[in-house]
Amino acid sequence: xxxxxxxxxxxxxxxxxxxxxxxxxxxxxxxxxxxxxxxxxxxxxxxxxxxxxxxxxxxxxxxxxxxxxxxxxxxxxxxxxxxxxxxxxxxxxxxxxxxxxxxxxxxxxxxxxxxxxxxxxxxxxxxxxxxxxxxxxxxxxxxxxxxxxxxxxxxxxxxxxxxxxxxxxxxxxxxxxxxxxxxxxxxxxxxxxxxxxxxxxxxxxxxxxxxxxxxxxxxxxxxxxxxxxxxxxxxxxxxxxxxxxxxxxxxxxxxxxxxxxxxxxxxxxxxxxxxxxxxxxxxxxxxxxxxxxxxxxxxxxxxxxxxxxxxxxxxxxxxxxxxxxxxxxxxxxxxxxxxxxxxxxxxxxxxxxxxxxxxxxxxxxxxxxxxxxxxxxxxxxxxxxxxxxxxxxxxxxxxxxxxxxxxxxxxxxxxx
Amino acid sequence: xxxxxxxxxxxxxxxxxxxxxxxxxxxxxxxxxxxxxxxxxxxxxxxxxxxxxxxxxxxxxxxxxxxxxxxxxxxxxxxxxxxxxxxxxxxxxxxxxxxxxxxxxxxxxxxxxx
Lengths: 416, 114
Ligand SMILES: Cc1cc2nc3c(=O)[nH]c(=O)nc-3n(C[C@H](O)[C@H](O)[C@H](O)COP(=O)(O)OP(=O)(O)OC[C@H]3O[C@@H](n4cnc5c(N)ncnc54)[C@H](O)[C@@H]3O)c2cc1C
Ligand SMILES: [Zn+2]
What we know:
The structure holds 2 protein chains of 2 kinds.
Chain A: H1 6-14, E1 32-38, H2 42-55, E2 60-63, E3 79-80, H3 87-107, E4 118-122, H4 125-140, E5 146-149, H5 150-156, E6 172-176, E7 180-181, H6 184-197, E8 201-203, E9 208-214, E10 217-223, E11 226-235, H7 241-248, E12 255-264, E13 274-277, E14 282-286, E15 292-298, H8 310-323, E16 332-342, E17 349-352, E18 358-362, H9 372-385, H10 399-402
Parallel strand pairs in A: 1-2, 1-11, 2-8, 4-13, 11-18
Antiparallel strand pairs in A: 3-7, 4-6, 5-6, 9-10, 10-11, 12-15, 12-16, 13-14, 14-15, 17-18
Helix pairs in contact in A: 2-6, 2-9, 3-9
Chain B: E1 3-6, E2 10-13, E3 18-22, H1 36-43, E4 52-58, E5 66-72, E6 78-83, H2 90-94
Antiparallel strand pairs in B: 1-2, 3-4, 4-5, 5-6
Bound molecules: flavin-adenine dinucleotide (FAD) and zinc ion.
Zinc ion (ZN) binds next to loops of chain B.
């Protein structure tokens, strides 16, 4: 692997940038692997990376039907935080945040982690109580989290509308200062490069169309490039998880919905943190290019159209202008959608399936970008050893039968 | 935004409606006899089809009545609406969807970047 550094930059600049190596290979699939990972999003690529790095398992293929990171990984609003309510989620998301903190060094790839803080607003008494409860829970779990009052919020975000006369006045908020954003594409590319260097085959433009099994055990996958045999298979396909479960013959509690995001024209720096509001339902941050990046809720009905409905955007822009009147004449430049895989308890499923050797990692829904490294790390352990790590053990599929749900609905502040 | 043909009021905008999830889920006759796995199936496990999906809707800000709808979730084509308790019309269900399920419309392209 060509190491990226100031010296390699200078060397290549002097050579007119013609000497850069390809970042990963594009191999043809072999007929058999130890592990096949279906889905080349951040979670699948992170799984492959940690399989190779932590467990020395390198006879691995990642099979992606489109292009790397072309699913939700390349479509999200890149908010990263770990201030979740329940112990199980706090442990998982905090592990992920800690991995994020060292990731640029570890991957030798700048993922542009920006710990600019994430502020979750409260607009009514029940919001305030919820925040008080969550911040206390966070602190018990050793996660940095604090409460700001209206005046402190105004000082932290001067452009916010703090008028007590608004329809939904800002009454307070929770702040996690270590939270922030990262560059989503770089996360996918960095993991891909790290996995490829260690021998993982990344196969793009190859769709999995069937799961081969014999006597209750997985034996391989059928793809548009032919049959690929494997001892173990990990399904990491987000919005398309139910389709893969159908192929394998088991059921999931997952529902897929379009979730949209949009960006404005670029403007001068005005917002140096991430602001989220569950109640008026919008969240916004400013990209390094100056664009406002904003998103909100899922569409009202199931769907696989990667666009979403206009009235959902209308709602979130109304909320945006209420919170930030300064944005009222900002023009929106681009809009897109992804297909998110939501679970009834708003927590992911990372673990075994009823089929031997077949594992699943899904249900991250509207908020799994922040979970990418932690999810990959724990899922790699699960694939390598055949058993979940204690970090992902609570996130099993069985919890919908046992009743041990991890309800992060309102508690997770807002969906992202 | 979908334009939904309410069987009672005619075509109205989606924002007047609320979707109630998968249709035709039958409430267990004898709940006391259900195993945990059967409860999980009834409460949580759902069809999540890419393609023909049978779902319930309520005309919340209109006549407030529930009805069923057959829709292609890959294209948003509304194939049929029919009343609660009725079975989906056979003709609608056997007809192949207008757009191939796995070919998203052209407009969905690479513009999907932050
Ligand atoms: C608009 C939007 C905003 C979001 N904002 C945030 C946010 O601010 N913070 C946050 O933490 N999370 C956010 N999320 C959620 C986050 O993006 C996802 O949870 C996360 O990226 C999922 O990663 P993944 O690798 O599991 O899935 P994906 O990146 O979707 O990867 C799955 C891959 O599987 C491939 N695939 C599917 N079927 C097959 C098949 N049959 N064969 C081969 N390959 C297949 C797909 O092509 C895809 O590339 C947002 C999501 C959206 C859509
Ligand atoms: Zn009506």
